[in-house]
Amino acid sequence: AQKITQTQPGMFVQEKEAVTLDCTYDTSDPSYGLFWYKQPSSGEMIFLIYQGSYDQQNATEGRYSLNFQKARKSANLVISASQLGDSAMYFCAMRAGATGTASKLTFGTGTRLQVTL
Amino acid sequence: DAGITQSPRHKVTETGTPVTLRCHQTENHRYMYWYRQDPGHGLRLIHYSYGVKDTDKGEVSDGYSVSRSKTEDFLLTLESATSSQTSVYFCAISESVLQSNEQFFGPGTRLTVL
């Protein structure tokens, strides 16, 4: 069975500062993918970033980067230069198994990020 | 944005009544999914589909059924709604040819069972 753990229910960060949202995972499958999604107060789920288990480099997408530490089974999201619009719930998710099949995701319970002035 | 719509967006129903939620996509993606979101649980997979008429169970499938008669439509049915099925339901789509096979989500349906 797969499991995603997000231990930070809520986080605060000042505008323009960087923040790290923690995510640890557990799977016995050697091939897997890790995702981060953002859910603003309006409710939609927005895909942010992806890391494959065999990817050699940490994924980056604009101000988002994924700090992937395979041996520690962690996939932390780093948001640089926080903006007020980053205030939202953030979910870490995992797909066990290779691409090419249905991408069944296991989600963590989320971290609510609040960006302050 | 991926073309995914869900209907209805809000529904209030009574215990014991049947409910059908519809997900419609215009992206021609092969895979479609239904999740429910509850406080403290994140999103949990109910059912998914890997093609027309091809469906399988997810983590929390009890009390739910699905059907996919066309590529673009994926229906979720609660045969006899219970209060424990009060939740926000999300449909998602994905296409395996994408390296990440990330899922794109619909806007969600808020269902209240009284």
Mean of the pLDDT scores of chain B?
Answer: 93
End-to-end Cα distance of chain A: 41 Å
Q: How many helices of chain A?
A: 0
Distance between the termini of chain B: 34 Å
From the spread of the alpha carbons, the general shape of chain B counts as: globular
Strand content of chain A: over 45%
What does this molecule look like?
The complex is a heterodimer of chains A (117) and B (114). By secondary structure, chain A is an all-beta fold. Helix content of chain A is 0%, strand content 52%. In chain A, the strands form 3 sheets. In chain A, strands 2, 5, 6, 10, 11 and 12 form a 6-stranded mixed sheet that branches. Chain A is globular, with a radius of gyration of 14 Å. The mean pLDDT of chain A is 94. With 114 residues, chain B is mainly beta. Chain B has strands at residues 4-7, 10-13, 19-25, 31-38, 42-51, 54-57, 64-70, 73-78, 87-94, 104-105, 109-113. In chain B, strands 2, 4, 5, 6, 9, 10 and 11 form a 7-stranded mixed sheet that branches. A 4-stranded antiparallel sheet of chain B has the order 1-3-8-7, with no helix packed on it. In chain B, a hairpin with a 2-residue loop joins β7 and β8. The mean pLDDT of chain B is 93. The chains are: A mainly beta (117), B mainly beta (114). Chain A binds chain B through residues 4, 33, 35, 37, 43-45, 47, 50, 52, 91, 93, 95, 99-110, and chain B through 31, 33, 35, 40-45, 48, 50, 56, 58-59, 88, 90, 92, 94, 96, 98-105, 107-108.
Helix/strand layout:
The complex is a heterodimer of chains A (117) and B (114).
Chain A: E1 3-5, E2 10-14, E3 19-21, E4 24-26, E5 32-39, E6 46-52, E7 60-61, E8 64-69, E9 74-79, E10 88-96, E11 105-107, E12 111-116
Parallel strand pairs in A: 2-12
Antiparallel strand pairs in A: 1-4, 3-9, 5-6, 5-10, 7-8, 8-9, 10-11, 10-12
Chain B: E1 4-7, E2 10-13, E3 19-25, E4 31-38, E5 42-51, E6 54-57, E7 64-70, E8 73-78, E9 87-94, E10 104-105, E11 109-113
Parallel strand pairs in B: 2-11
Antiparallel strand pairs in B: 1-3, 3-8, 4-5, 4-9, 5-6, 7-8, 9-10, 9-11
